[in-house]
Sequence to fold (351 residues):
Amino acid sequence: MNARQLILDTLQGKTTGQVPVTAHAWGLYKFQLANIVQGYENEHLAWAMSGRELAEVELNFYDRFHPDTFHLGRGAGRLPVDEQRQKAAEELIPEVRKLESKQVIDEYVSLVTVSEEEALKSGIYDQVKVIRERYGEEVFITLNEGNPFADTLDPHGVLGFENGLISMIEEPEMVGYLLHRLHESRLETLKALKKCGADAYIGSETYCSADIISPALYSEVVFPAQQYFYQGLKKMGLYAFSYFLGDLFPMMEDIKQLGLDALLVERYNKGLDINIHRVYEEAEGAFTVFGNLNSVDTLLHGSTDDVINETTREIELCNHGKFIMSNDCPICFDTPVENIQAMIETARGYR
Fold:
């Protein structure tokens, strides 16, 4: 059984006889491994790469460790919007933030929307195409981006963090409308990702955990747009994955209704300890759960024995069907190669 079929069977809850294992690896570690960047002072070199050049970085990582999925990032940084449209969109942001007009929101969204054709022409997903051409149907390809809600509440986003939180309370209907339109816009762009050969999309949900917003606010304002989005991914033929940061347990009943195929969570975040067994149990089979071996304390700073023990512990807690072993967040600079190998080899050898 090849890696792609193993992941597909796991997502469907089939008994595989083998524990799938992958690396949460969309960040900069791969560029360090390829001797392109050695620290954050020159990270711009990584984010400027696209196409075959970026694919070679990804393939170097894959050929070194052979995880069961490719965990890619988008090429060439930001979505391609020409300077004139970008300037017009930025000038409209103060009016959007007033949340007084759906027409203004529609105008803003039309300016920032990247069509399927534009995305294909820009090459931001060409690394997917290169990898698919190289390996055919043997590999499972995922791509990770910040989702529209995360982009909206980012300090540089259309609403900004503090203003966005206040607006959700004072103007929930208009914020909900903005989020729906932005998620709709992203689906248009992701048609290009599907055409390039990706299997799944991972949306990073950074600001919608219970340590930031209330479960009621999430359910009323954020959830409808996210549900529309993730179910839209499935309609276009992409598996819908979410990387959910922070305290997700108070939102779990809603998360189970999003239509996800898989969920990724961090182990330690904001003073929390997210118990993977609790995540697995509360999911009740609604989606596949990725393991959350800590990328800092265990993978970076731990011994090889620490990695083996934690990998084994997580598998024993969750290996009853819909589970994929993984680390919890992007691999850190200077992580020992032998620790990554230990996680993968331990999962592969588990019986």
User: Anything to note?
Assistant: The chain has a mean pLDDT of 95.
